[in-house]
Amino acid sequence: MTSVDEKSQSIQYEAVAKILFICPKCKSTKKLEFPRSVVDKTNNLTTISIPKFLICDHAFQAFVDKNLKIRGYQSVDFEFENSSPNIDSNDMVKTENPIKKEEKNPNKEVNFKDFNFEVNKVFYNPKHFEEEKKINKDELKQVYEDFWEYIPSNNSIFENFIKEDSRRIHFIK
User: Fold this and answer.
1) pLDDT tens digits for 160-172?
2) The pTM is what?
């Protein structure tokens, strides 16, 4: 067995984690699978991004601990959307690892017209952004309760909750 075969075989048998995710806006649910190594590689919490239409019409993030327990969710306030712009044929970039199955030359110039290439386009509505920016005190309290041990003692946003929290009293001078 070659080293390439061994590598592909180890990927094939990688441990899979299954978690039931719940959209924080509409409460739609779906059980998703992903490599367990994603969670094992992080120190504390793993942030998993759930894109629009994977579960529902909303994009959100889930915070997962080492025991595969969801510690909280965060709605996405601002999201980039993809569009397909016209790319000038002179837009060439030299890459170390071009991603083309038929080409294995790492020093070859790659023309992005050869790829189905999309660039992020920003859609910004200031009114919507300002409305979403207003933070409900109850929501802020819930975020603090879910993540208090990960919030630094000098965090100004959670300052009032930190001062009143008996679990943290020994951290504050």
Assistant:
1) 888 888 888 665 4
2) 0.45
